[in-house]
Each structure stands twice: as structure tokens, then as C-alpha cells.
Amino acid sequence: MGWIVNNLGKMLLASAATIVLCGTAHAADLPTYQPPLVPSAAPTYCTDPIKFIVTDCPLSAYGITFYGTIDMGVGYESHGAPFNPDIITGVQELIRKNSTGSRWLATPGGLSQSNIGLKGVETITPGFDFVFDLNFGFNPYGLTAANGPKSLVDNNGVAQANQSSNADSSRGGQFYNSTGYAGISSKTFGTLTFGHQNSLELDGVIAYDPMSASYAFSVIGWQGTAVGGGDTEDARVTSVKYRVNVGDNLFRLGALVEVGGYDTNNGAQNSYGVQIGKDFDLGRYGKFSGDAIYTNDKNAVSASSLSAVQAAAFPNTLAATVSDNQSFMLLGKYTYDKVRLFGGYEYIDFRNPSSPLGSGFTNLSGYGVAFPNINQTAFSFHDEHLQIMWAGARYAFTSTVDAGVAYYHYDQNSFGKTFCNNTSASTCAGTLNAASFNVDWKFAAKFDVYAGMMYSSVQNGLANGYLHTNNFAPTAGLRFRF
User: Fold this and answer.
1) For 3-481, which CATH class?
2) Percent of the chain beyond pLDDT 90?
């Protein structure tokens, strides 16, 4: 194995050291770049450091691949908040309640969450493989674990105008805060996996968002409402997951069932989802793909920082709103030559929990949530109905340069005691609108540079409590994927 064995060992030790040193409705969990698995029967690997840098050779041997991404950039925000090494995005490219003045900021993860991981495939018997994936997301500037709930705790008791960037997330500082699962895969019978893994909606948004759920350029990437079926803590779930392609491209099916509840590192007490999709080959007219996803989450958690009074009474804990959520998502993508068109729609229903909690609990990041700080009556008068929709396109100018544009829209009904469509309450009807574009140039096998911007604004109920209602956020960065 030569160079690869020695250096893989060093990298693993360095990765372990990084994990030890490291200890969001909101920030979602970006997809992680994963080089193709190398079959165990045909080991291959980078033979020297130069090839590792200048070619696309994987750090693989005997079915196991060590992989990762480093994504670092800089950005400007017309209304932003200070950098926070704990929030998984580092900064708030999307307009938020605590967004204040203009500022230049170090901006990690514009396109991808920085991460390191091990994945593998090993043949058990012809036609059946054992597969696994363990991935850890981190902030490359602070070398801290991606931990949305900790960013909330960082701002407990802090006046809104003085807060640093913060948002809830399913990444809670765990060593498997991206994924940590194992299972059996068969081309004929599908793939069955168990562990901490993407929700069906997160997989769907990654595939059907023109910005691939990026933090810097996608609302549904930065904010995890869409990918968590209403709450971002459900974007990744400790679960059993099954995917299978039926017939000769007849259709595809997916299903996910949560295992355990809060005690197994979940953001809900019970959840499940189902999916059906199909690819259509239109010959000289291109290709079309479509998917439909339904999810149901019981006692779903949306965590938040504590007020000064709450923080004094319950230090180092979190507040939370708990609800029962149902969501239905429709996805479509059309490809013709160098053009790809994307679109999606999601309808989410929030209601008070059918089985209210009787005590506090421990959040997926390990922080306690005291019972007096749990809101289980946020939807007492009416259910909240949130509609999320998006559309966009990408064009491949060359094999290494492509560009994309996208538009995102949220529409919330009035769900308080009386109808309203102003900023007087968060229960008033309201909207969010955002537009973005970016250009990505892969100038080497494992390197690319990118630049673009996102403009976001909120109105009426979705602007309640905001210091400012819009943000213009251009970002540029460099990414290394191995």
C-alpha cells in the first residue's frame, strides 16, 4: 500500500484529533461529496502525494474509501450577524431576525459542508454487498464540529441586536453529525440501511434544487424547514431506510421509519416517510425525472435560544416548540443537452402535538430542554400551513464550467386567533422570497472555485420581530474534494 497506508493512517489520526478538539426551522445539512466506492475485488489508491493533489484518484483500498471536502470562502452581507464557529453555516446568508448591519465575513461551506468520512462496500455473496458510511461535518475556520443547537446556546440571554449567527440543525456535534449508517445493498432487491441518515426530503432537495441545497445560494439549503418536513432537526434521522428500483426503470420506491425518539438522537418522537419516483427518457427531447414524498413527524422539535429570564433560571439549556407535522413534496427535473431545469413544491401542516410531552427532554446535541420552556400550544387556534416552492436552471458552458439561477418562495397562512397579514405577530400570513445565481469552475480534478449571490426578503408574518427584512449576500470560495 506504500504511501497511501502511511498517509491514510496519519489522516485518520488527524481526523480523530480534530473530532476530539471540536468538542437550524433553520440551517439544513448540505450534501457531502462522496467519490465512487472502489470494489473490494479491485483495490486502487493514490500512489504518491502529487497524484493525490493533481488527479482524481481516491484514497481507497479493498472497498474502503477515506473522503472529504474543504470548502472555504468569503462573503459580504448587507444585513448580517457576526461569524459563529458553531453554527453549521458559520454565517447567515439568509435574512434572519438578528441580522443587523453590513459586514464582510469569512464564509465556510458556500457550496458544501466541510467534512471527513469513511465509507465502504464489501461483497458478502454475489449480488449482495455490505455498505457503510460514517461522516463528520465541521467548520474549517474554527475547526469546530457543526453544531446548530450549540450556536443557539451561545446566544442564550443575548439581546437580539447583539447575537452572533445561530440556527437550529440536525447536526448537533456528533461524530456522525452528517451520516453514520450500515446496511445491505443489492441491484435486484434494493438497499436497506440502519443508522443516522438523510431524510427522504433531504435526498430529494439535493437532487432537485438547482443550487444543490448549498448554504450560500439556496434558501432550502440554508434553512432546514423543507428538508426536515417542517423542522430542521428531522433532516437526519436515526432510522431504517429502504430504496429499490422496480423493474426496468418502471419506477423507484423509498421508505424511512424512525427508530426510537429523542433518546436515539432524533428531533422527533416518531416519524416515517414514503417516496415514489420515475425517470422518463424522452429520446431526442431529453430526460425528465419526478418524485413525490410524504412524511409524518410526531412531537417534532424546533429549538431556540433562551431569553435572559429563562437563561438565568435554566442555564446552558434550550427552549423548544413541539408540534406534529405532515408534509407532501413534489419534485421535477428536466435535462436537455447542456440545460437542466428544476422545480419543487412542498406543503407542510403544523399542529399541536396529539400526545403532549409531560416533562423536559434532552436535545439531539445533548442539551437539556426544561419543561417550562417547551411550547406545545403554538397552533391552538388553527394549523399552520406553509407552502414552499422553487424553480431554477443550470447551464453547462463547458465540461468544467456551469452556472445556475434559482428562485424560492414561502407562503404562510394566518393561523392565530384572528386573521392578520402584517408584522404584528408571527402567526400572521406572510411570505419569503429569494433569488440567487452562481458560477462554478472545476479547474482541476479535485478543486473548483465558485462565486455568486443570494438576495432574500421577508414580509408580514414571516417578518415579525426582524430588525431588517432583507439581505444581499454575495459569496466566493474555493473547494477541495477528495
Assistant:
1) mainly beta
2) 88
